[in-house]
């Protein structure tokens, strides 16, 4: 401040070329020392007040032991710290969930904010291209806050003015590796703000056994597995159509069988009928006795689908002008048409006549069936458009492990992979990756990661034995598992 600024040297510059740019000397204002002292004191006080206001607990943690040590001797300060540490350890040992909820995750979030995100923020933003250096000044997006859950860090970010969500979703790999995570998912928090999820560990890394058959007959949503955040994965089947795509061995069977398993009490109560199409003659034949209608060869599959269309049209005629939504009853149960490997019936079908009949029936069911209680749950391996031209007619889509990154958007819709649905990176090892899926539901554009429970052959056998032993419908509240 009291030093002569380098700008003063401008007066000594001598130029011999006539077109030299004009050199301006910045004006130097000599500030009285008292003004500088007042400004610095004001900034210090404002900083202390802001610190106390924003971080009262952290401030107390430092100031209280220091004050105690100052007033009564250092032994008192150390004793207080030891007492608090012992108390916190006891709390964590006795009631871990409440400790984690109220303190543990906050402490971890604070540590991760300082050690991981703030420390690497500027380089990661600039190198990934999300920040800019203009005229020697760095403009980087604002790191608003970090919160921790049991499996991920959730980082709230204020985008730079003029940035788009796509700028961020195009750089999820830079962000993930820059902050030491395996992946990053981008969601919109509100206008101009994003929520970035960086998983710290994979809560879906261990296979999930088949879930208990529900005690109560319900048409759904059916609990079929676990979501990444630990909450149950409930799949809606009534009032929608679901497409499940996955490479061979990705675990399509676990989604189909978990859904059937969850619906069994409702099947026994007469509220649901399952019509199964099994062109591969492998997956569904095992539990044939559970289905109201079963077809395997293509001609029988075409008949089944056309019968489902007839049910749909008959109901549409009856419901017209009376009710707009279907309520499952014993007279008008929800009909779930389950198709394993739908491409066998469409793209790979050599009989042109059958192919046309099947495609027409599937298109009719998926466009008009849901309002009258006919739903389709279809699985397929190859999601290319020419393999299943009607894939956009399924409101809800699930992508298990896929072979190529382009297939992710084919199944889940445009931009799903950029938002973090990395279905092509799911492990091909069955114990690590089978049954793991990204689901994109009609109600939410954000892909959700989850793992379906694995329904083994023994489980299917037990389901068949239990549900075929007694043909009487179960009362709605009877315990069956
Ligand atoms: N949810 C799951 N959790 C753990 N392992 C699973 C799960 N689902 C399937 N697996 C394992 O992966 C193997 C293949 O599963 P599945 O047959 O269901 O795959 P798929 O996608 O139907 O394959 P395909 O198209 O060849 O029939 C199973 O034998 C099992 O070992």
From TrEMBL:
<dbReference type="GO" id="GO:0005524">
    <property type="term" value="F:ATP binding"/>
</dbReference>
<protein>
    <submittedName>
        <fullName>DNA segregation ATPase FtsK/SpoIIIE, S-DNA-T family</fullName>
    </submittedName>
</protein>
<dbReference type="Pfam" id="PF01580">
    <property type="entry name" value="FtsK_SpoIIIE"/>
</dbReference>
<dbReference type="InterPro" id="IPR027417">
    <property type="entry name" value="P-loop_NTPase"/>
</dbReference>
<feature type="domain" description="FtsK">
    <location>
        <begin position="230"/>
        <end position="409"/>
    </location>
</feature>
<feature type="transmembrane region" description="Helical">
    <location>
        <begin position="33"/>
        <end position="53"/>
    </location>
</feature>
<dbReference type="InterPro" id="IPR050206">
    <property type="entry name" value="FtsK/SpoIIIE/SftA"/>
</dbReference>
<feature type="transmembrane region" description="Helical">
    <location>
        <begin position="73"/>
        <end position="94"/>
    </location>
</feature>
<keyword id="KW-0067">ATP-binding</keyword>
<dbReference type="GO" id="GO:0003677">
    <property type="term" value="F:DNA binding"/>
</dbReference>
<feature type="binding site">
    <location>
        <begin position="246"/>
        <end position="253"/>
    </location>
    <ligand>
        <name>ATP</name>
    </ligand>
</feature>
<keyword id="KW-1133">Transmembrane helix</keyword>
<keyword id="KW-0812">Transmembrane</keyword>
<keyword id="KW-0472">Membrane</keyword>
<keyword id="KW-0547">Nucleotide-binding</keyword>
<dbReference type="InterPro" id="IPR002543">
    <property type="entry name" value="FtsK_dom"/>
</dbReference>
């Amino acid at each position: 401040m009291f030093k002569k600024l380098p700008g003063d040297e401008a007066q000594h510059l001598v130029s011999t070329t006539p077109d030299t740019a004009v050199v301006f000397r910045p004006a130097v204002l000599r500030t009285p020392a008292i003004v500088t002292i007042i400004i610095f004191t004001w900034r210090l006080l404002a900083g202390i007040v802001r610190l106390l206001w924003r971080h009262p607990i952290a401030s107390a943690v430092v100031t209280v032991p220091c004050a105690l040590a100052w007033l009564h001797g250092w032994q008192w300060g150390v004793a207080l710290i030891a007492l608090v540490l012992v108390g916190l350890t006891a709390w964590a040992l006795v009631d871990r969930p409440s400790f984690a909820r109220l303190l543990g995750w906050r402490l971890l979030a604070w540590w991760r904010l300082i050690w991981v995100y703030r420390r690497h923020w500027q380089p990661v933003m600039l190198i990934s291209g999300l920040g800019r250096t203009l005229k020697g000044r760095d403009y980087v997006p604002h790191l608003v806050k970090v919160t921790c859950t049991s499996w991920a860090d959730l980082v709230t970010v204020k985008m730079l003015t003029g940035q788009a969500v796509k700028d961020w979703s195009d750089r999820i790999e830079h962000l993930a590796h820059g902050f030491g995570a395996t992946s990053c998912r981008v969601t919109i928090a509100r206008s101009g703000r994003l929520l970035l999820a960086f998983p710290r560990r994979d809560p879906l890394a261990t296979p999930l056994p088949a879930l208990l058959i529900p005690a109560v007959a319900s048409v759904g949503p059916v609990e079929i597995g676990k979501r990444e955040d630990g909450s149950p994965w409930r799949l809606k089947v009534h009032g929608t159509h679901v497409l499940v795509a996955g490479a061979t061995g990705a675990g399509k069977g676990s989604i189909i069988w978990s859904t059937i398993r969850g619906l069994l009490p409702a099947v026994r109560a007469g509220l649901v009928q399952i019509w199964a199409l099994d062109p591969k003659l492998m997956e569904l034949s095992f539990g044939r006795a559970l289905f109201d209608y079963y077809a395997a060869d293509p001609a029988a599959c075409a008949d089944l689908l056309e019968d489902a269309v007839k049910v749909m049209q008959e109901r549409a005629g009856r419901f017209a002008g009376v009710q707009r939504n279907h309520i499952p009853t014993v007279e008008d149960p929800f009909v779930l048409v389950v198709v394993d490997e739908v491409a066998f019936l469409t793209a790979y079908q050599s009989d042109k006549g059958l192919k046309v009949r099947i495609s027409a029936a599937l298109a009719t069911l998926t466009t008009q069936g849901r309002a009258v209680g006919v739903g389709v749950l279809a699985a397929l391996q190859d999601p290319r458009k020419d393999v299943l031209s009607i894939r956009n007619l399924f409101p809800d889509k699930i992508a298990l492990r896929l072979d190529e990154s382009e297939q992710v958007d084919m199944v889940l819709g445009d931009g799903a992979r950029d938002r973090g649905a990395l279905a092509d990176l799911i492990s091909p090892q069955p114990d690590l990756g089978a049954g793991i899926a990204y689901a994109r539901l009609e109600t939410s554009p954000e892909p959700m990661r989850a793992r379906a429970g694995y329904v083994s052959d023994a489980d299917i056998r037990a389901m068949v034995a239990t549900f075929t032993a007694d043909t009487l419908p179960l009362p709605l509240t009877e315990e069956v598992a």
